[in-house]
Amino acid sequence: MVGVERPPRRREDPVESTAASQHGYIHRKDDYLKRLRRIEGQARGLQRMVEDEKYCIDILTQVSAMTKALQSVALGLLEEHMAHCVVQAAQTGGREADDKVREASEAIARLVRS
Asked: What is the DSSP string of 19-72?
């Protein structure tokens, strides 16, 4: 609704791993950065399209392409998180495992809603 501010959502801090480890995506960091730079270029292209008053459907087509690219990055990061961080926490067990599963479930829910 216009003019109505929602109160900020309360969000717990991300779960920090107790094990000395790297993030699961680290071995593909360069690939993710390359893809994110491409998406950044798409965003600049969208800005130019609007500035140049391009046809609405052409802009929407590019928005769709950019959205798909972002979703692809998100799914890749989620897969890396599940395969590395969640599995590692599950092997450790206890509260950390429960927290990592909850954190992953919340991330999946956010992706589904987007």
From this structure: S----TTGGGHHHHHHHHHHHHHHHHHHHHHHHTT--HHHHHHHHHHHHHHHHH
